[in-house]
Each structure stands twice: as C-alpha cells, then as structure tokens.
From TrEMBL:
Keywords: Membrane, Transmembrane, Transmembrane helix
Source species: candidate division WS6 bacterium OLB20
Coiled-coil residue windows: none
Domain of life: Bacteria
InterPro entries: 26kDa_periplasmic_antigen, SIMPL/DUF541
Record-linked Gene3D superfamilies: Protein of unknown function (DUF541), domain 1, Protein of unknown function (DUF541), domain 2
Identification of the protein by name: 26 kDa periplasmic immunogenic protein
The keyword Metal-binding is assigned to this record: no
GO process terms (BP): DNA damage response
Transmembrane intervals: 12-35
Amino acid sequence: MPHYVREYLKTVFTFATKAMFVFFLVLILVMLAFAQLFRQSQQLQDPQHYRVQGTAERKVTPDTIYLTVGTRVEGSDIVAIQTEANNKINAAVKAIENLGIPKENIRTSEYALNPEYDREGRDITGYSVNIEVRVTVEDATLEENKAGDVIKVASGNGLNEVRSLSYEVSNREEILEELKLEAIEDAKGKKDAVADAAGLRLGDLKSVEEGYYYPYYDNFGRAETVSDGAAAAPSVQISPGQSELSITVTLVYEIL
C-alpha cells in the first residue's frame, strides 16, 4: 500500500475517533441535563406536601372616578381654531375648579393639531384640534354626584364628549391586606378539619401563595356627546354601583 494512502487512512481514522469521542461526550452531557430536569420535576410534584385554599371577599363601593371630556374643533384658519380650543379648555377647567375639584386633579390629557385633506389626500382643506381634559373625582358619593356635575359644566363650556369613565376604590391595598388575613384564617380552619379527617400529621408551613380579583370598570373608547349649552340642564347621574373584591390564598404544609 502506498505511503500516502496509509497516511490518508490514518488521518481519517484519527478524525473519526475524535468525532466519536465528542459525540459520546455530548450525549452524556445531554443525559445528565435531562436527569437534572427530571429530578427537579419530581421535586415540584413532591407528594409530601399538603395544600389548602382559603378565600375572603367583600362588597366595595368605588369612591374615585376618572373621567375624560373633550371635543374636536375644525376650521380653515389655524390660529382661529387654536384660539377656540384654548378658550374651551380654559373655560371648562375654570368651571370644574369652581365645583371644588383641586387643580392637581385636572389636566389636559390631549391637544392634537392636525391638517385635514381633500378626498385625494393631496391638498390641505383645513385643520382640526382634538382636545381632552382628564379629571379625577375623589371621595365620590352618589349624593354629591360630582362626576355628573363635571360632565354638566364641561359640556356647557364646549367639551361636550365624554371620552372615558372609570371607577376605583382608593383604599384597595388596605382592604386586600385585611382580606388576606381573613383568607389565611379560612385556610387554617379547613386545614385542621381535612387533615384530621384524613389522618394526616402536618409539619411546618412551607409557603403561602395568593391571588386576588378586583373588577376595574372602564368605559374607555365610548365617546358620548352631550349637547352644547347643557349647563342649564340637570347633572347626569353617575353611579359606580358596587363590586366584589376577593382574595384566595394557598397554604402549603409539610406532611410528616
């Protein structure tokens, strides 16, 4: 056999040997990784833990109302429509402040000036200004109906579209903490009853898992138009109604 053939076969054999070594090394590493994942999954599904759920709920009445009022001003004179838009904002904000709403709870949330084009989309035929004012009504009650008064005076001063309306409970976190303790007590009561009936002997509490549900009502995107000059009309009655705040906790105990 020629020398160059022997050298070629030797090179091929050496390369094949190294390739096989790398292949088996990678295979071993993959098997070790799968073994580790399997052990972890077994730990997560460890039957030596007892889980019990507790719940607590409460009816709450939202006391904070967020609403956005606005309008659209159109015309061919860009300065004139900006002046008109500014006048409407200033008049509406002043009227809302006169209701006792703090200045920090009133802000211009949108002021957009845009050109208007013809059907072909080439020539500018005029301009439009879209304006919005967002108002936060705190300590809202059905008797005072401040949100309805805000809509009334805003529309009376040119902001005749209700762009959004939503409700919230101001002390939600405080209520959730109270409900969490109630849910834990509920779970503890179930734990003793079920464990005794099943003949289980429980050890230490290993973990506490929690989740809560609170509906957030938002009519965003439903712009309702109120006729101009509505300042003389009665206020719109705004009633957030009641909603249910609930929390669920899961106590995880060790089984001895």
